[in-house]
Each structure stands twice: as structure tokens, then as C-alpha cells.
Structure to design on (759 residues):
């Protein structure tokens, strides 16, 4: 009797990790199109955003079905609850990628700061890497690794703080940089938010592994 | 899984049943596809078992019961006076709540129906025994004890041998009347596994009091109440989004 | 419960090795123990059916005993009020109010007034509803009609059956539905004013509606009684019990708060059993 359930659970697991990888790629692409001033690339991200939302809805629907039909307990229940909670976190990460793409499309500034754009590009790569790393911890059921994501997020926060001070300094020095620098501030905020979301997923991985609900993100208040 | 393009193996229309003057089924319309599991659920006295038993004319054995309505089983009218009930029950087999092996060997239990049908060829019988016991997932456990008494088996094994006895006559439809309610969870689990393995090859109708069994095992669920069919739909619809309040109340354990 | 968030390193939550057994250690100052067993072993002839079954039962709580057939849970339950006398050899101590009730000196019938048992199949006597309840009392010499009337009403009310039968107390108990009969049997046990109620799969022969009525009754009763129930129905254990003990091959493998057993059991065997993973 377990066999059908186990198959469905494995499918659910696959759909969830696939969605995680898709979100990581989308984030990286969105940041890349911002630093490359690539409006076409940003439009493509907006065009594909529905895929993430549809995947979320399909996964949620499946978890409801499995709870209603199989009344899972203990490790099964924790796995399903983890997916149900984490999938909406992934969807919110997707929303941030969409926000970045929107900023790229309506960007007004003509004068840019190459050093900050380089930093943002690196932050994008870092946060996309964090998303795929946390999905890896999910697959390996690695609660200790998940905990380490909080440290990684700390370093991301510090980068965001640096972008903030660099942007503010840039604006003070050259008023033609105001449009671009305002965008940099916002983008750094989006990336910081995605970093926080990875720790939310990490918390659910700890729950899945141990049954304990913990707080990995005690509010590093470096930025926004 | 239920496939809407599947053809139906059994169609029943306006089924009514009386115990003496008392009408116990008030006109049931229900059809069954040729593969997959349909669960009949409902409280005691809802008519689900009564309906199940009408499908292979079990009520013939009792006086004072009248059955009316249309029962089209692959073109055969189940209640036609010309229908041979022995032949009918070979094609529509029934497994009961209590495992009921005969006090013979496991082997003789399985071929009981074939012997009645006059099959004597040892090779044919041997093959039938192995096939049926494999289908009912009990072969590995009993293959060295085929000539021992079936009464020595555990409850769960006896029930799987009962299923093998029904399968040996190559039925098209299996009726199961609370097949696991007398068994412990591990034995129930083995029976459910067996039924899962059979569901791609047979049409099965199972009466169960266990809502969780209906939800994990069946493709379709029919909810009976007070002799009426309240709702029938795919199991996931019934358990996630039933259309009728009565169904909703029953499956979520809100009674009265 | 909302601020049940832990700020400890994750490593503290990950046990190095899953234990093979886990018996919840009830701190005695916080919990009043109604009944406990020590060194309990049960033999059928030479066959050791229960080898490690030491449990303490908290007062006014419902404890479920779960496990596969042959795991020893029913053997354990039946030992608690000496139903195994003459059937099996029960070694060890069963402590009830400071007294070891598993000794020859105990008057078993008197003890069973305190520790009553309800069986799987409702077994009302072929008497009226009223006489089913008063039978044991009159045997013991209670004759006051007024007293008996009161006990009948109180027990039937406690068993949540009064409203359904109050106008037909003189009807035969055999005419009751399965769920009503089971609640009558519970009322009959309650009439003796027991302290502890043992139930051996009390609803497995009942349909879901009757079963739900019996469950509601048990939840009502736990304000006044300590209840120990053997059940094959995992959801029933999860719904109604405060504690759950999981038996496997004659041993208690895990004993803990029900909400822990069903969300994060410590022993892999328990996890498999309650998840329906029977190997």
C-alpha cells in the first residue's frame, strides 16, 4: 500500500527540486540581464514567470491531495509539510526575480557605476548559488548544511550594505547617477530578500529532518 | 486509474430492494468501469453491503427479499431467469469479511471453483493454483505448504487464499465485503497491496468502513446513506471536494 | 504553543544514533501515576509473549497501546486486571495505589471493581438495559431501588447513552445497535465506579458512526477515569489518546506523548509502523 504513496511522494519531491532549480536559474538570469542592461532578457523572464506560479499551484494541489487521501504521519507528514511551506517561499523568490526584471525594463539612468554593477552581478550569482545549495541540502536531508546557509546569508547582507553605502556616496558625488543608484539600492534589497528566503527554506529542512521548528534568521538588520 | 474512455463492465439502474414490505434500497444508479477499484462507503444500514450482495445475487439464498432494476453485466442480465448463478458467481466473485477457507489443503481451496466446473487435468490445475496464488501475493509464503490445511494460515494469509480462490475461476469482477475489517493492520496492508496489484487487470468493488482505506486504495468512491446513493465520483473529488454536505460530514467524521 | 521556537544549534536536534527503544520517563512530581508495571513478563506455557513491558499510566489520561497482532499489547492489557489468570503466567509487579495487585493475596473480583474491562465485541447480557447495569451491583448486595436508579442514570449519562434509551430501560439490551450496546457495556463497567478502564479494541467491530460515539464517550470519561485502550486503528489512537505505547514482538518499543509519537517518534520501528510501512 505504501508503494503508490512512495511513488507519489518521490514525484512530489522531484517536482519541488526541479522548481527550485528553475527559480535559481531565473534569479541568476534576472540579475545578469540587469547588469547587462538587457531588456529583451528581462522581458523573457516576465514571459516565463507563469511557469513558476503554475508549478507552485500544481505542487500545492498535490500536497493537499496526499494529505486528504493518505493522512500521512511523522516523516511522511514532515516531508509533505516542508514541501508545502517551502514551495511558496520559492514562488516568492520568483516574484523577486520578476521585480528585478521589471527594474531592468524601466531603467531610466544613462550613467552607470561599473563597480556597483559588478558587485550586484556577483551578488546575483551568490544568491542563485545559495538557492541551488539549499535545494541540495533538501535532497540530502542535510540539516547541518541548512543551518550553514544562515552564515552565507550573513555575508550576502554585508555585500548588500556595501552596495547601499557605495550607491549613496555615488549619488552625493554625481547627481547624474541618481536614477541608476536608486535602482541599485532596490536591486540589492531584492537580492537580500531572496537570501532571507533561502534561510526560510533551510528552517523547513531542519524541520523535515528533526521535527523541530527553529529560527535561523534572527534578523541581521544590515539593509532595508 | 479511472479512464473516462474505459467501457463499463457493469451498469445498474434504478436498483430497489425490499426486505418483505420494507424498501431498503431506493433506486440506485451506478456503473462500473472494466478496470479499477470502486469503494462503497456509508454508515451501517446505508445499503452499501446490501447493494454489493445484489450484484452477484447473494440475496437469492434468502427468502423474503425482492430485487428490481436493471443489472447489465457486459450484456448479461444478471437477474434474467435464464442466468446460471453458478456461472455468474464465477464471473463475479465475492470475498467476505471473515476469511473463510474450507477445511482442506491450500491447493484444494484454490481449485474449489475449478473442480466444481469439472476441470480434472492436473497440469491445468497446478498452473491455475500457482497463477492465482501469485496474483493474490501469497505464493511465496505458501508454495511449500500447498498440501497443508488452509486453516493453519494466519488471518491475512487465509484472506489472500480466499482471494486466490476467487481469482482461480478467472472472474471479470471482484466484490469485496469489508475484506480487511477482521484483520490487524499488517495483514490489512498485505491485502491492500494485493488489491493494488490487481487493479490494472480487474474491476473491483469494495465495501469498507475505513475511510482511510477507501481514500488510499480506490479510484472511485460511492457514498451511500439510508438506502440512497448520495454521491459517486473519483476518490480524490470525494475526499477533497465532495459536492454534497452529507458526504462531507461523513468522510470528515462529523456524524449527527 | 506559538512561541515554541527553539534557538539552539541544529546539531542538538539530530540524534547521533536512533535509539532502539524509547520509554518516556514521566517525572513523578508532575504526573500522578494511576497504575504502573515493573518487570512484567507474560508466558503462555514456555512461550514468552511479553518480555519487556514496564509502563506507568498517568491519571485521568487516555493511553493507547498499539502494535501488530502478536506484539503483546492485548496480552499486556489483559494482565493489568488479571484476565490472564489461568491462561498465562504473569510475573512481575502491577502497582495500583501502592499495592502490588499481581499477587495471590489480592481479591481479584474486588480489584476488578477498580480496574474494569470492556471487550472488542459488545457483550450485553440477555437482560433489560436496566438490569445489565444493576446486575453486578445487586449481586454485591445493593438493593435500594433509589440508589440503583441513580446509578443507572449516572452511568448511562456518563456513557452518553442516557438520552437514547431513557424511555426504554426495560427493553432487552440485545435490541440495541452495536454502538449503543458498546456504550451500554461501558456504562455497566462505570456502574461499579472503577478508577481505571481497560478497553480492548472497543470500536473495531463498529461502523464509523458508532465508533465515533464511543470515542466521544471516552473523551468525556477521561475527566474522571484513567483509560487504557488497545486499538488497531492508528487514527483512533492519534485522535483520542494522550499517550501512546508501541509494542513489537513482546516489548514496549516506544512510549511517549501521542503528539510526539505521531509527529516525531524516536525509534525507526515506530515510525515505520505508524506510517504503514510494514516492510
Amino acid at each position: 500500500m505504501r508503494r503508490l504513496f512512495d511513488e507519489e511522494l518521490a514525484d512530489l519531491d522531484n517536482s519541488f527540486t526541479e522548481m527550485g532549480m528553475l527559480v535559481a536559474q531565473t534569479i541568476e538570469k534576472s540579475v545578469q540581464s540587469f547588469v547587462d542592461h538587457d531588456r529583451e532578457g528581462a522581458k523573457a523572464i516576465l514571459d516565463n514567470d507563469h511557469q513558476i506560479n503554475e508549478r507552485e499551484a500544481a505542487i500545492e494541489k498535490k500536497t493537499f491531495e496526499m494529505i486528504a487521501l493518505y493522512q500521512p504521519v511523522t516523516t511522511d507528514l514532515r516531508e509533505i509539510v516542508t514541501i508545502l511551506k517551502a514551495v511558496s517561499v520559492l514562488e516568492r523568490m520568483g516574484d523577486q526575480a520578476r521585480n528585478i526584471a521589471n527594474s531592468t525594463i524601466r531603467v531610466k539612468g544613462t550613467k552607470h557605476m561599473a563597480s556597483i554593477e559588478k558587485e550586484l552581478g556577483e551578488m546575483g550569482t551568490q544568491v542563485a548559488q545559495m538557492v541551488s545549495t539549499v535545494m541540495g541540502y533538501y535532497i540530502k536531508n542535510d540539516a547541518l548544511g541548512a543551518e550553514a546557509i544562515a552564515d552565507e546569508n550573513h555575508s550576502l547582507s554585508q555585500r548588500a550594505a556595501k552596495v547601499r553605502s557605495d550607491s549613496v556616496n555615488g549619488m552625493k558625488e554625481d547627481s547624474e547617477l541618481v536614477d541608476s543608484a536608486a535602482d541599485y539600492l532596490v536591486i540589492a534589497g531584492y537580492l537580500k530578500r531572496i537570501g532571507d528566503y533561502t534561510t526560510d527554506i533551510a528552517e523547513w529542512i531542519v524541520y523535515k529532518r528533526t521535527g523541530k521548528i527553529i529560527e535561523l534568521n534572527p534578523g541581521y538588520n544590515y539593509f532595508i | 486509474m479511472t479512464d473516462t474512455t474505459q467501457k463499463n463492465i457493469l451498469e445498474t439502474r434504478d436498483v430497489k430492494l425490499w426486505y418483505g414490505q420494507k424498501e431498503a434500497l431506493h433506486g440506485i444508479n451506478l456503473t462500473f468501469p472494466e478496470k479499477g477499484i470502486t469503494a462503497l462507503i456509508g454508515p451501517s444500514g446505508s445499503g452499501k453491503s446490501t447493494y454489493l450482495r445484489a450484484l452477484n445475487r447473494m440475496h437469492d439464498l434468502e427468502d423474503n427479499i425482492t430485487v428490481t432494476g436493471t443489472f447489465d453485466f457486459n450484456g448479461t442480465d444478471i437477474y434474467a431467469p435464464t442466468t446460471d448463478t453458478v456461472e455468474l458467481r464465477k464471473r463475479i466473485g465475492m470475498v467476505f469479511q471473515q476469511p473463510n477457507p474450507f477445511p482442506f489443503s491450500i491447493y484444494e481451496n484454490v481449485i474449489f471453483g475449478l473442480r466444481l466446473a469439472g476441470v480434472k487435468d492436473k497440469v491445468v490445475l497446478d498452473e491455475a493454483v500457482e497463477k492465482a496464488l501469485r496474483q493474490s501475493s501469497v505464493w511465496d509464503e505458501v508454495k511449500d505448504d500447498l498440501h497443508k490445511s488452509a486453516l493453519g494460515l494466519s488471518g491475512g494469509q487465509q484472506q489472500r487464499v480466499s482471494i486466490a480462490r476467487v481469482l482461480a475461476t478467472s472472474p471479470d469482477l471482484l466484490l469485496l465485503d469489508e475484506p480487511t475489517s477482521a484483520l490487524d493492520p499488517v495483514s490489512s496492508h498485505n491485502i491492500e497491496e494485493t488489491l493494488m496489484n490487481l487493479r490494472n487487470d480487474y474491476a473491483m468493488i469494495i465495501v469498507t468502513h475505513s475511510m482511510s482505506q477507501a481514500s488510499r486504495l480506490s479510484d472511485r468512491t460511492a457514498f451511500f446513506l439510508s438506502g440512497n446513493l448520495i454521491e459517486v465520483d473519483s476518490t480524490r473529488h470525494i475526499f477533497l471536494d465532495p459536492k454534497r454536505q452529507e458526504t462531507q460530514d461523513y468522510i470528515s467524521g462529523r456524524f449527527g | 504553543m506559538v512561541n515554541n521556537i527553539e534557538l539552539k544549534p541544529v546539531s542538538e536536534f539530530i540524534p547521533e544514533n536512533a535509539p532502539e527503544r524509547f520509554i518516556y520517563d514521566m517525572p513523578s512530581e508532575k504526573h500522578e501515576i494511576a497504575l504502573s508495571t515493573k518487570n512484567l513478563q507474560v508466558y503462555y506455557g514456555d512461550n514468552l509473549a511479553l518480555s519487556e513491558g514496564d509502563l506507568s499510566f498517568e491519571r485521568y489520561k487516555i493511553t493507547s497501546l498499539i502494535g501488530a497482532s502478536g506484539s503483546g499489547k492485548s496480552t499486556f492489557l489483559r494482565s493489568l486486571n488479571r484476565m490472564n489468570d489461568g491462561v498465562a503466567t504473569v510475573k512481575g509487579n502491577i502497582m495500583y495505589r501502592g499495592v502490588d495487585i499481581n499477587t495471590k493475596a489480592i481479591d481479584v473480583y474486588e480489584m476488578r471493581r477498580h480496574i474494569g474491562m470492556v471487550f472488542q465485541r459488545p457483550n450485553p447480557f440477555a437482560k433489560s438495559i436496566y438490569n445489565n447495569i444493576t446486575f453486578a451491583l445487586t449481586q454485591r448486595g445493593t438493593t435500594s431501588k433509589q440508589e440503583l436508579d441513580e446509578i443507572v442514570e449516572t452511568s448511562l449519562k456518563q456513557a452518553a447513552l442516557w438520552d437514547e434509551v431513557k424511555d426504554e430501560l426495560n427493553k432487552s439490551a440485545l435490541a440495541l445497535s452495536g454502538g449503543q450496546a458498546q456504550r451500554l457495556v461501558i456504562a455497566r463497567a462505570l456502574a461499579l465506579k472503577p478508577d481505571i478502564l481497560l478497553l480492548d479494541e472497543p470500536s473495531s467491530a463498529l461502523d464509523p458512526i458508532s465508533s465515533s460515539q464511543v470515542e466521544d464517550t471516552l473523551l468525556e470519561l477521561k475527566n474522571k477515569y484513567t483509560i487504557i485502550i488497545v486499538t488497531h486503528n492508528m487514527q483512533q489512537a492519534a485522535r483520542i489518546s494522550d499517550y501512546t505505547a508501541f509494542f513489537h514482538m513482546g516489548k514496549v518499543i516506544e512510549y511517549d506523548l501521542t503528539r510526539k509519537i505521531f509527529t516525531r517518534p524516536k525509534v525507526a520501528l515506530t515510525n515505520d509502523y505508524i506510517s504503514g510501512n510494514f516492510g
